[in-house]
Amino acid sequence: MRILITGTSGLLGLNLALEARDTHQVIGADRCRMTGLPFDLICGDLLERGAVEHLLESSRPDGLIHCAALADLEACEAQPDLASNLNATLPGELAAACARHSVKMVHISTDAVFDGAKPGLYMEEDLPHPLSWYAKTKLLGEQAVVSSNPMAIVARVNFYGFSHNGKRSLAEFFINHFVAGKPIRGFTDVIFNPTFVGDLADLLLTMLEQGLSGVYHTVSPEVMSKYDFGLAIARRFGWDERLLTPESVDQGKLTAPRAHNLGLSVRKLSAALGKKPIPTFSPGLEQFYSQYQQGYPQKIRSYPLA
After folding, report:
1. Given this model, what pLDDT does residue 180 score?
2. pTM score, two decimals?
3. How would DSSP label each residue in the chain?
4. Given this model, what pLDDT does residue 64 score?
5. What is the tens place of the pLDDT at every residue in 240-287?
6. How confident is the model at residue 229 (pLDDT cuts 50, 70, 90)?
7. How far apart are CA 147 and CA 250, in angstroms?
């Protein structure tokens, strides 16, 4: 399958493209912040007039996985118009173009579309109520995709892994502090489904290959607090867990509001995938640790910046 992946300088886009190229023909789409990547790359700004149509006509993919977004919550609060254009308007334009060109689409959304007020796990049919501007624009993006292309997949995710700059995932935040011996605060009252990016990449490719459509919670089936996530990293990597201090997110002095409970049910995805199990947390953490041991962070950071 010929797969177009947007945002290939980002954490998910880069890791997804590197994994997908083993079994598919990959074309990346980005502003070309990095060079020397081991897959074909189309450079450009997708917000420019006519860029979406040009991208699909020039790449002629069988499938598109749209990862590009403004994902920094604080940046979204500071640049609301850019967040709206990238996270809400662009996905709808891509979805409409994919429908015209008969290209199967996967749009990456977020667990943050929920406000965290529900006890227990969120189902796909639960009514979203986003708190931050990032989450609001991502929900608008979901709605634009479904409206423009009902056959598209909307995948709500929460993932960790290694990025090019080493600062884009919660796991990297913990690692950087542990390595430096710096104290860290871990939120005990923010619950989520941490998913290793390699496992997420595999799930997204499977969903695309199987021709699914609609909204799916595409995460590990296990939920935990961000504090417990940091603790699991410290223990697996052999670092001093005493550096990690439990704290409430309400003490964090963050600009963008955060929901307390972002636990997602994966029952719908599990049923759709049939015999293929959804990867659980511990094996994913083991893969993440193996990557660290084998120098994977240094490998992806070796791609030169343009």
Report:
1. 96
2. 0.96
3. -EEEEE-TTSHHHHHHHHHHTTTSEEEEEE---B---SSEEEE--TTSTTHHHHHHHHH--SEEEE------HHHHHH-HHHHHIIIIIHHHHHHHHHHHHT-EEEEEEEGGGS-S-SSSPBPTTSPP---SHHHHHHHHHHHHHHHH-TTSEEEEE-EE---SSS-SSHHHHHHHHHHHT--EEEESS-EE--EEHHHHHHHHHHHHHTT--EEEE-S-S--EEHHHHHHHHHHHHT--GGGEEEE-GGGS--SS---SB--B--HHHHHHHTTSPPP-HHHHHHHHHHHHHTTHHHHHHTSPB-
4. 98
5. 999 999 999 888 777 788 889 999 999 999 999 998 899 999 999 999
6. very high
7. 36
Dig out the tokens for 52 from the structure.
């979406």
Domains and CATH numbers, the chain: 2-301 (3.40.50.720)
Between CA 269 and CA 212 the distance in angstroms is: 10
**pLDDT tens digits, 163-213:** 999 988 999 999 999 999 999 999 999 999 999 999 999 999 999 999 999
* pLDDT score, position 255: 76
